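INFO batch 0412 | record 1 of 1 | parsing
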Amino acid sequence: MAARKAADEAAATSAAESFPVAEGEDPWTPEEIAEVRAELMAEHERMSNALHVAEAGLQDLLLDASDGAGRDPADVGSSNFERDQEMSLAANAREMLDQVELALHRIDTGQYGLCESCGKPIGKGRLQVFPRATMCVACKLREERR
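INFO prediction complete | emitting tokens
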């Protein structure tokens, strides 16, 4: 067990030294990487639970749905609204879960901190605030203007 912990710490130190930083930023420390990883793992757990709840709610709505014959039109409209809302919540949770998994994968492969658009460092400060970021600020702004 102690050997495994020492190997993990050595890997974290090596990984921290290889993560890119923006000009003027201090290099990543193993503690900072561990903090980001812990935050991402907690977010993964939270999003997995949110996705499970949203999918269960959607399944309940779909099972309770009928063809609408003989139902009040307001009830049908309300049911449709609830179903659409649950579908939106499930899609959002699934997308955020995918982003968290991608960030964890990028940490594991040493790609964390590189903009997927231009290949330059995203910036340590940005990643500490938004650890799921995959683009630098300039590329993200350019993408949002399109």
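INFO post-check: Residues 113-146 form one domain.
INFO record closed
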